[in-house]
Amino acid sequence: MVETFNSSAPIYLQLVERINRQILRGELKPGDKLPSVRDMGIQSGVNPNTVSRTYRELEGMKIVETRRGQGTFVTENHEILQNMREQLKQEEISHFVASMKAMGYSGHEIMNGLKTFLTHAEGSESE
Amino acid sequence: MSAWISLVKKEFRLGLPALLFTVIALIFIVGLAGYFGARHGHGISAAAIAALVLIPIHIFYLLCYMFDSLQKERKKLHLWLHNPLPGYSLLLAKLVSALIAMSITLFLSCVIVLFGLKFSSDNKEIFHAFSWSNIFSTGIFSVINIYLFALDFAIWFIFLWVFYRMLTRRIGGFLSFIITLVLFGVLAYLDNLLSGTRFYEWLTHWGKVSLVDILTGFNFNFSLNHGSHLSVDNTTVFYIGSYVFEAIIVAILFCITSWILDKKIEV
Amino acid sequence: MIKLEHVTKRYLKATALKTIHVTLETGKIYGLIGSNGSGKSTTLKLIAGLIQPTKGSIEVDGIRVDRRIAAKVSYLSELDEYYGFYNVRQTIDFFASQFSDFNREKAETIRDYMKLDPESKVKHLSKGNRGRLKMVLTLAREVPVILMDEPLSGLDPMVRDSIVKGLISFIDLEHQVILITTHEIKEVETLLDEVIVIKNGEIAGQCNVDDLRYEQNMTIVEWMTKIYE
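Output (structure tokens, whole complex):
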């Protein structure tokens, strides 16, 4: 099936995010080759031009590099990948905190709630 | 060229039901005539006469075939017209497949007639007046004229069809039909008017050939042994000029038709 | 490249298009959307040279169009009338014979991809399979312009999915421009570069799909709804 995209953000940015997550999860490793623009388009049901724009965006972020005549590869520069990892974490936390604050929770409550949640979650994982 | 040949094949396939229908109708009519004739002891003659009557009706064959073919295309105009070939190619493909179909039933009719002449004892007297070569030469002359008339009618028809289709998207079906009819009437009237004039005579009355020339000519060529028994006073005269004139008119009509098909037809 | 300048199309009873200006560039997929009767099909037929503008001019690759622009344009009609006496293979053969740019191998690949039985008679095909056959015939041509009138209409989700994916797989964006009319906007949203909204025979808006999302935070459906309000 064609993967679904949500309606709030540009498709090429959603694809950027998708690829970033694949790298974080280790599905794409440093030095791995990304599918060709065409194949990526077919896989994700997206216009090849959109895929090109995605790859250009990733290139701008230095997360991938295009080698002439060979294709597009995930960077082997671990510092950049580490930065990306850090940045995504910050983004996700700020989203979370912002919506918690919007509901009226204090920083302290959030911290405690998170601690308790994680203890429970890790406890159930180890069982 | 191969694109065009493939198109002719498609047209022939499109017209195949019409061809089968005419062949079956021919066999049915001849068979029926033969059956009733046989009750009175003249089966072969009756069948041959029926076939003989059917031969001149072939002048309407191409017209009917084109009508059928174009009507079938009416719902598929976006298919038929979405083609890089020029309009005259599209139309010629239809005409050629129509000619092939016509030749099949015309040939069948002629064979039945000849068969009847050969094997029916009723026709002995005919051979007193005509020799086989006379019959062949008359036949060939008639068949050529049947083809020419059939082509003439068919081209007039596709011209009117295309003209009607051009108008129908612009001013509606009813009015288009009336205008097409009026156009046909006017053209027929003008043609009639023209053919009465000295100018027309001057234009077409050249290349005089009398039928008897042809017949005896053929006679002479085909069978030196048989004498001609035709009397010369029954000569029909015709002019090559009038054929050329009609051919030019039909060619002009065909060009206009192709142009309308390329530039003015809407799907 | 397709260029429509000052194009007006009047029919017997109604004006279908009013002074349209559009330029479509090679390398992009355009979506033409709008309500029923807004002039979408008329626009496609005009570009295919199958109808003539009342006013204005239409050019494909600098050539003023008439019927014979078929040499440069592959047109998929919203009708699915084919010659019923042919089977799938014969229909493909016939198209291959008529268009010199028809790529037999590609047609075979697409037919295979669309899981069409070459021996089935066209008149016995289901609606879904007729839709698939149309895709085979339209996309197998190596042609600069592809026009598709409602390629998804009336088809079930599986067929729509195979058609959208087939489109991405088999078009050649380096050399082609594709113009699609559709009501199934959500299905083609990820497919389009640009979208043109047409309303009552006039162009009501044209923009890049991702820019629309980025700058106005709107999907095509939302944008079209806003224009039609």
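The CA atoms of residues 180 and 207 of chain B lie 35 Å apart.
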